[in-house]
Design brief:
With about 200 residues, the protein is of the alpha/beta class. Helices cover about 30% and strands about 25% of the residues. A seven-stranded mixed beta sheet has the order 3-2-1-4-5-9-8, sandwiched between helices. Helix 1 packs parallel to helix 4. It is globular. It starts with a helix and ends with a strand.
């Protein structure tokens, strides 16, 4: 419950545009998702919270969109923003390290969760769920803090990665297709170094 309470508190006390991870334009994520799934197949945004990525996916004509987050308050913000369009999205409340299934999706996107998983057993459970979710030939689009990124976010310690380290975490079931560094500028003007990876499920 501690993890859930932490994120519920964030989304009930801070404005969406004030949190450090806010992006007005999730450009890198969209580029990688659409390159992985040019036919606009199903996409699940893991840890999507109140992110604007779901808006962009709907605008791009993605056929099946889901947003998974541990925070009910975060998802409610996204639903309220989308209005009638929220009915076109599958909303999933849950802890990605404690779920048996979220269905099947062509693309698993995560820019918010994996780097918070300090416990190797939690990372293993995450990878197992991800592997069950993505069919062979599907793709993983993941963004984490880079090796020169911040050591903490939202008051929590994070793990930092490069593309090779991510590949070792995901194992032989996933092949790295592309890596892309990004410098994210927070709403307060601070730069944060990220590494994005596009992986194919073998």
């Amino acid at each position: 419950m501690e993890r859930k309470e932490h994120w519920e508190n964030i989304y009930t006390t801070k404005e969406t545009t004030d949190v450090g991870w806010y992006q007005a334009d999730p450009k890198v994520s969209m580029e990688l998702i659409l390159s992985a799934s040019p036919d606009r197949g199903g996409v699940v945004d893991v840890g999507g919270g109140a992110s604007l990525l779901v808006d962009r996916l709907l605008e791009a004509g993605v056929a099946k969109v889901a947003v998974l987050d541990i925070s009910t308050a975060a998802l409610q913000r996204a639903k309220s923003r989308l209005g009638d369009r929220a009915a076109r999205v599958q909303w999933i409340v849950g802890d990605v390290t404690a779920m048996a299934s979220v269905g099947s999706f062509d693309v698993w996107h995560d820019r918010a969760v994996f780097h918070f998983l300090a416990d190797p057993d939690e990372r293993r459970k995450y990878v197992e769920l991800m592997t069950r979710t993505i069919p062979p030939g599907g793709h993983l689009v993941i963004g984490t803090f880079a090796l020169d990124g911040p050591p903490r976010c939202s008051g929590l310690a994070v793990c930092r990665y490069d593309a090779d380290m991510l590949g070792r975490e995901f194992g032989s079931a996933f092949q790295l297709m592309k890596e892309l560094p990004q410098t994210h500028i927070t709403p307060r003007g601070s730069p944060q170094k990220f590494i994005f990876g596009l992986f194919r499920r073998m």
